[in-house]
Specification:
Elements (H helix, E strand, L loop, with lengths): L15 E3 L2 E4 L1 H13 L2 H7 L4 H14 L5 E4 L7 E4 L1 H20 L1 H10 L4
Antiparallel strand pairs: 1-2, 3-4
Helix pairs in contact: 1-2, 1-4, 2-3
């Protein structure tokens, strides 16, 4: 049986692909949200069961895809570190969450029809 990436979120999952590359999707949005909530790229990654390296690589990728960074991060060490979303990061996260909500509303009837057609297990 294939692995389900977001078993806690049934339904359709929105992925924004522009210019032939993934820009925003559920994982990237969750990482941004986790950074906003925890103040840490590493902590946001741990919450998602993502490796430290993967979380940092994804954060760097997000920062280089846009005209300005989405995440402002300070490396850890003796003085500590931390991360926060930039105003553009907050705007992109909000835009993605709005698109998710609009998509869910637009397909709710069809999704319900699919659900009704499923074999009960």
């Amino acid at each position: 049986m294939p692995k389900v990436r977001h078993p806690d979120r049934p339904g359709a999952h929105l992925r924004i692909v522009l210019e032939g590359r993934p820009i925003l999707g559920p994982g990237r949005a969750d990482l941004l949200q986790g950074i906003a909530e925890t103040g840490s790229i590493a902590a946001a990654g741990r919450r998602m069961r993502m490796s430290y390296a993967r979380a940092w690589n994804l954060a760097e990728e997000l920062n280089t895809q846009f005209r300005a960074p989405l995440i402002d991060a300070a490396k850890g060490g003796a003085g500590g570190g931390g991360a926060r979303l930039t105003p553009l990061g907050e705007k992109m996260l909000a835009a993605y969450r709005d698109m998710e909500a609009k998509t869910a509303a637009a397909i709710s009837e069809e999704l319900a029809a699919v659900r009704r057609a499923l074999r009960r297990t």
